[in-house]
């Protein structure tokens, strides 16, 4: 079955640690996105990528980093510079057309302990 | 710049009653509009989308939405809701153009709660 797989589903981070969230898709989509979701704030764009080896900052990129070495993979690293990382993180992908819908993974819930 | 406003953060309704979730967008150019649904602790699923043509769009689970260009609205409706419709609903806008470089902008969401 085609789709987007995020792992892990739950992740706990200690203060000062970097953690990496995985996102893999087998839909042959060019564009991939990372969103952060907090209660009452909807989805806020962290980073997005249209092609391999290229990505752009979204609205809240500070404290995060990404890579796009393969078309299928778009991992997100939450660095120690992110002061409030506890949130639900969603990865999405879509074809390279603005009129196409995005397909979402099941999300990763990150908690700082 | 594009933006999306969902006018209600929460909408409580009784089972089998009709419901309307409101969405207004702001854009100086033609855009594409979407409604997504999110069940607890899950990702988002597409309900329906408006690209062009007929202003009434039908989606999954009995939902429909009407595009109104003059009012820049894209309200979501269902004539009779079920307990299983309890979820958060997001309106989104994308475009213009043919490139995915145009980002998908989401509203802040409307939490629909169904009472028996």
Task: Give the overall shape of chain A.
Answer: globular
Number of helices, where a helix is a run of at least 4 consecutive DSSP H or I residues of chain B = 0
Could you spell the SSE succession of chain B in H and E letters?
EEEEEEEEEEEE
Structural class of chain A: mainly beta
Name the poorly predicted regions of chain A.
none
Share of helical residues of chain A = under 10%
Strand content of chain A: over 45%
- Rounded radius of gyration of chain A (Å): 13 Å
Q: What does this protein look like?
A:
- The complex is a heterodimer of chains A (113) and B (116).
- With 113 residues, chain A is mainly beta.
- In chain A, 0% of the residues lie in helices and 46% in strands.
- Chain A is built from no helices and 11 strands.
- In chain A, a hairpin with a 5-residue loop joins strand 4 and strand 5.
- Chain B is mostly beta strands and 116 residues long.
- In chain B, strands 2, 5, 6, 10, 11 and 12 form a 6-stranded mixed sheet that branches. A 4-stranded antiparallel sheet of chain B has the order 3-9-8-7, with no helix packed on it. In chain B, strands 1-4 form a two-stranded antiparallel sheet.
- Chains A and B meet through strand 4, strand 5 and strand 9 of A and strand 5 and strand 6 of B.
């Amino acid at each position: 079955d085609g789709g987007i797989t995020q792992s892990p589903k739950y992740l706990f981070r200690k203060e000062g640690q970097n953690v990496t969230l995985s996102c893999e898709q087998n839909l042959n989509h060019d564009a991939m996105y990372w969103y952060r979701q907090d209660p009452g704030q909807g989805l806020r764009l962290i980073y997005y990528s249209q092609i391999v080896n290229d990505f752009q900052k979204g609205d809240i990129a500070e404290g995060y980093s990404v890579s796009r070495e393969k078309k299928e993979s778009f991992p997100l690293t939450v660095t120690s510079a992110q002061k409030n990382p506890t949130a639900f993180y969603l990865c999405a992908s879509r074809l390279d057309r603005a009129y196409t819908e995005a397909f979402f993974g099941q999300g990763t819930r990150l908690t700082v302990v | 710049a594009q933006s999306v406003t969902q006018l209600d953060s929460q909408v409580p309704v009784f089972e089998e009653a009709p419901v309307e979730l409101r969405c207004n967008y702001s854009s100086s150019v033609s855009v594409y509009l979407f409604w997504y649904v999110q069940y607890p602790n899950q990702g988002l699923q597409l309900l329906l989308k408006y690209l062009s043509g007929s202003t009434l769009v039908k989606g999954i689970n009995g939902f429909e939405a009407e595009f109104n260009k003059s009012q820049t609205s894209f309200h979501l409706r269902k004539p009779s809701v079920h307990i299983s419709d309890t979820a958060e609903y997001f309106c989104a806008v994308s475009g213009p153009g043919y490139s995915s470089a145009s980002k998908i902008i989401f509203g802040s969401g409307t939490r629909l709660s169904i009472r028996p």
